[in-house]
């Protein structure tokens, strides 16, 4: 039998999947993976099947991209600008005033998005969820790869800012010993980011294991219900036989 046609416009299907509320994500993911398998798109099906259900905070951030792309674009642009002026300030190639200006722009963009997210969340806007939304947005603003995922509305995990954050007061570096200290600081930053990525991967594996355990628990509950029903039927049959 010749292969079936590929699922039309997989990118659009993924956009629709990430737009679903968290409680509908697993069913939508499994449906898309099943359709991909039927279309003989095995590799794509496995990739989709491995996608994790987003938390409420991640869902809210992805929703912002779809509902308020202008605000998200402003945050991503402000974060990129902040990275640039920080790098120039560290290399003594830019005035420190620009760091403060870029920092304030990034903060204003973040405040606007967090306020919008709080309104979008409605009854789900607990202080904890709003804080996690804020942390994820802040990290996505200052991390280039996370910023791309944010702009696409395809974040899969909550993020936490890694590194030193905005450098409101950067002292120009001129002496050789200062250059060595700067190199050491960059190396330490690299180590911290690697550790953060490792911890995020551990958290992702734990979340995957939790999903598996949840599915297994549901299966066992169904099996227990069936066994209880069978036991009830057997007891009823025994009672009928005794009464004859």
Can you describe this structure?
The protein is an all-alpha fold and 244 residues long. It folds into three domains: 10-49, no CATH class; 56-172, no CATH class; 175-244. The chain has nine helices and no strands. Helix 4 (56-67) packs across helix 6 (96-121), helix 4 (56-67) packs across helix 7 and helix 5 (69-90) packs antiparallel against helix 8.
Q: Roughly how much helix do the residues carry, as a percent range? A: over 70%
Indicate how many domains the architecture comprises. 3
Major β-sheet profile: none
Task: Outline the low-pLDDT stretches.
Answer: 164-177
| Proportion of residues in β-strands | under 5%
Distance between the termini: 59 Å
Number of helices: 9
Report the structural category: mainly alpha
Radius of gyration: 25 Å
Q: So what's the overall shape?
A: elongated
Mean pLDDT: 80
């Amino acid at each position: 039998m010749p292969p079936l046609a590929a699922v039309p416009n997989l990118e659009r299907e993924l956009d629709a999947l990430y737009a679903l509320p968290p409680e509908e994500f697993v069913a939508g993911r499994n449906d898309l993976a099943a359709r991909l398998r039927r279309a003989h798109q095995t590799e794509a099906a496995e990739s989709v099947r491995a996608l994790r259900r987003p938390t409420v905070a991640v869902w809210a951030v992805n929703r912002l991209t779809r509902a308020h792309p202008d605000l998200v674009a402003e945050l991503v642009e402000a974060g990129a600008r902040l990275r640039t002026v920080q790098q120039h300030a560290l290399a003594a190639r830019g005035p420190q005033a620009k760091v403060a200006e870029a920092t304030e722009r990034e903060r204003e963009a973040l405040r606007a998005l967090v306020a919008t997210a709080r309104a979008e969340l409605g009854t789900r806007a607990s202080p904890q969820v709003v804080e996690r939304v804020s942390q994820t947005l802040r990290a996505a603003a200052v991390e280039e790869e996370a910023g791309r995922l944010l702009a696409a509305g395809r974040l899969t995990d909550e993020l936490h800012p890694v590194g030193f954050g905005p450098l409101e007061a950067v002292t120009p570096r001129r002496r050789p010993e200062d250059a060595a200290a700067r190199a050491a600081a960059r190396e330490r930053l690299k180590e911290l980011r690697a550790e953060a990525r490792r911890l995020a991967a551990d958290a992702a594996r734990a979340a995957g294991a939790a999903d598996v355990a949840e599915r297994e628990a549901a299966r066992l509950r169904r099996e227990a219900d069936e066994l209880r029903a069978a036991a009830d039927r057997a007891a009823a049959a025994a009672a009928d036989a005794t009464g004859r």
